Amino acid sequence: MSKSKDQNEESDVELDEYYQETIGETKRYISRLKDPQVAQVCKKWIERLNYAKNQRPLRNQYLAELYWRLKDGQIEGVFRRAPSKGPLVPYQKPLVTETDSCSESSASTQIARSCKHHWVRSKEPSRPESPPKSQEVVDETDEALSQDGRSELSPKAQFCLENTSKVQLHIHQQKIDHLTDTVRDLQAKNEYLNQQLLRRQGREDGNEVHQLRVTVKQKNGEISDLKSRVLQVQQMNKNIKDCHEEIIHRCRDAMDEQVQRFKFKLRQEEMKSEQLSQEVDKLTLKVEKLSQEKEEELRLKQENQEELQADRERAFESKYKHLESINGDLIRENEMKEKNILLLNTRLQELENKLQSKSEEEAKLQSLLNDQCSTMKDEFMKIRNEMEEANKQQNQVLIQKISSLKKCLLKLEKSKQKIILDYKQKIFEMEKNKEIEMKTLELHLQEQHNELSTSLSSEKQCELDSLVNMLEERYKGFVIKTEAMADSQRQKYLQKLTDLENQLCYLKSTIKTDGTYV
């Protein structure tokens, strides 16, 4: 049984190799087709044959026929339409004349011959050629049988010969059944026509009777031709069966010889298997010893693991107690930090009060500036009146007063610059102090936030986060307010300075270089 399985596997592998070689050539011819519909049908046939792995000989026969049709450039018959679902049907060539029927028998003999003497395939698939006469076919089969008697068959060739002969026998059997069915149909039609002829005798004219007789004669002639063809096919079937029995007998003899060889090899393998079984027994003993040693090691490791587990549990209990003590300390620290937060709130209120006082001081400074500006305006008016009166009196007095006024203007400019610098310095110091205070508050709040976030538990952490967020929002609002107030004060101071500069420019424009007023 194992020998036959190996032979079947080898034959399947070789049939698959032949199929792969042929399918490559076939695809190359399909790619050269100009008609897209024919190319699509051929691709469907290739896909269908790829799935027919259980029918390797029939699949190879279909592929070889498709290859030769593509090579000849004539796609006809079965390959003009898409393949049907289900298993492949044995391929049937059209039966036209006696030479065609004889060609199939010659094809089977040639396939058998090619399997016996040329098992190694070439790149192109073999194509059977039909001889011109039936006498040559008989001679070829006799020569093949004589060669079979002289030479022994290899198992691959025997398997291929069995498959091809079975396929050919199945094809011929189908053709015989088809012909017998047609003969029966014709006989039934002949009987029906005879009955109609008998019925119509005496009823119809002589011309109709004559026509019926002529048709009956034609049908009888066709029946006789078909009977002769059936006899020929039956004779061919007998010859093929005889040839097939002889081939099977020879195959059986060759198989018996190979079975004897395989038995001898099997005995040798049994001896080797006994030696291997002894070695396996030795190895099993070694494995048992190793397993015992490993079990002892595992037992020792388990004991060590249990001791380590007990030590870890003790350490865990001590750490748990330590954590409980730390938790109590954290609760106390939390209370202290809450008190600190209240102190910070009071401090923030004090800072707000300071800012209000500073804003009041800035308002006072602004009022002082306004008073000074008004006084300066009054003085300028007095000086102008005096200069007008002096101008009426004498030019020299005017020149002296103009020089004095210029000195006063220089003093005023210097005083203005000093005032500007003083205000800028004050504003810068105020902004710097505010920034320092804000940064210190931010750092203090951040430190408290970090300490609280690292020490407190999850519930108290949420409460502290909410408090810190509220303080941050209040702090941000306070910073925004202070920045807005500082910006507004800065804008006011700048506006006042620009007003003073405009007034000075106006006073300068009123005075001419020659000492006259405009």
Notes on the structure:
With 518 residues, the protein is mainly α. The chain contains nine helices and no strands. The protein has a domain at 319-376 and 409-510. The chain has helices spanning 2-31, 36-51, 56-72, 98-117, 134-150, 155-200, 206-393, 395-455, 458-510. Helix 1 (2-31) packs across helix 6. The longest helix has 188 residues, at 206-393. Residues 169-196, 259-393 form a coiled coil. Keywords: Coiled coil.
Topology at a glance:
Layout: H1 2-31, H2 36-51, H3 56-72, H4 98-117, H5 134-150, H6 155-200, H7 206-393, H8 395-455, H9 458-510
Helix pairs in contact: 1-2, 1-3, 1-6, 2-3, 4-5, 4-6, 4-7, 6-7, 7-8, 7-9, 8-9
Q: What's this model, at a glance?
A:
The protein is mainly α.
Task: Give a quick set of tags describing it.
single chain, 518 residues, mainly alpha, 9 helices, 86% helix, disordered C terminus, coiled coil, AKAP9_1 protein
Number of distinct beta strands:
0
For the termini, the CA-CA separation is 139 Å
Largest β-sheet summary: none
- Helix and strand sequence: HHHHHHHHH
How much of the sequence lies in strands comes to under 5%
Count helical runs.
9
Please state the CA-atom Rg, rounded to the nearest Å: 62 Å
Proportion of helical residues: over 70%
- The 3D shape can be described as elongated
Structural class: mainly alpha
Q: State the low-pLDDT regions, or none.
A: 94-154, 512-518
Q: Would you tell me the overall average pLDDT?
A: 73
Protein name: AKAP9_1 protein
Domain DUF4485: 15-91
Coiled coil: 169-196, 259-393
Region (Disordered): 114-152
